[in-house]
Amino acid sequence: MLTWGRIAAGLGLVLLASGCGGQEPVTPERTVEVCTAAGDAQAKVEFRRAGTVVASGSVAAGGSFAASVAVADSVDAYVDGMLLGTVEAGSADVRLGCPAG
């Protein structure tokens, strides 16, 4: 005989099995952007966390490269293998080498 308790228990198992029982933790992120000057050549941009590349891209002269990185991580920004700057953990969105405005 079906009772409300058995129906509720069965529904709970179905929801748990379908993934409704819990959410994945959300990692807060911020945007880090690097800009190149119009007179520069094509450049390779890398964002590194503790020496490990977490984002990279190729940027045309006068262009920019942006990526989302975890707020909790310090990230070093490199352009053509040279350190441009460090974005400290806990900071907000950052633009390096970009014109103001």
Automatic annotation (TrEMBL):
<protein>
    <recommendedName>
        <fullName>Lipoprotein</fullName>
    </recommendedName>
</protein>
